[in-house]
Design a protein that fits this description.
Elements: H1 12-19, H2 23-29, E1 38-39, E2 45-46, H3 49-59
Antiparallel strand pairs: 1-2
């Protein structure tokens, strides 16, 4: 994927795979890690691809 990301909304499972951590770890820590989320409904959260890329870049510099 090109840098800058896109408007796709991957699930927490996909984000966890990319971070190489268990999904439960992301679910338990996304607030304290300040991962920007998009609330689809009361029970469904997603992370905009471009926002995740920016968050990850800021964490790895």
């Amino acid at each position: 994927m090109p840098r800058g990301g896109s408007n796709t909304l991957p699930s927490f499972e996909t984000i966890a795979e990319r971070m190489e951590v268990p999904k439960r770890t992301v679910l338990d820590n996304y607030r304290s890690w300040d991962i920007p989320v998009v609330r689809i409904s009361d029970r469904i959260l997603r992370v905009r691809e471009r926002d995740f890329e920016a968050w990850l870049d800021a964490r790895t510099q």
